[in-house]
Amino acid sequence: MKNFYFSLSLFLLPLLFIGCKEEKEQDIYSRFNVRYDYTLAFIDEEGKDLIEGIFTTTPFNGGGILLREGTYTYEIVEQNSDDRFAKPNNIYIFDVKGYKTLRIFNQFAQDGDLSKNPKMFSSKFTNPHIFGDSEVHTIVTYWEFDKSYNDATLIRFTVDGIDAQVTEGLDGGLPLVIMTLPK
Known about the structure:
The protein is mainly β. 14% of the residues lie in helices and 43% in strands. The protein contains three helices and 13 strands, in the order H-H-E-E-E-E-E-E-E-E-H-E-E-E-E-E. The strands form two sheets. Strands 1, 2, 3, 5, 6, 7, 12 and 13 form an eight-stranded mixed beta sheet that branches. The protein has a five-stranded antiparallel beta sheet with strand order 4-8-9-10-11. The chain is globular and about 85 Å long. It starts with a helix and ends with a strand.
């Protein structure tokens, strides 16, 4: 039995050293995806909520209402072929600070190099109810990345080159973006 334990320890000893490579700070954070999430309210110049009355499905158990498929398109524009964004499967409607908002969850898959986290990315969005047309509208978001928390903070938001107001969301959660569209 002693020979068995001795042989086993000789076999396992090299495995111990193989598994003890020095981890770099970026290796620790490479295990996570970075979320680029926000809630988005659309109002007109008179303050009328443009999401109110939009086509939805039944409420889901998370408290929001699902935006009805076929009434919108949403596509992330990849900045380069190495970007690995996961677009949201669904867009939900939530009440936030007196506004009907679209809750949009974007996710960026890291490959271990924190410098590659995008500081800006674009998406294409259509919704005749909100915009009053079937045109494709360009959303550009600007982010600040905090590698110590593996977190992205929204600092600027535009639709078709027009700046929106970026504020704090509920309980310090997802940022609330208030986009005022001209009539």
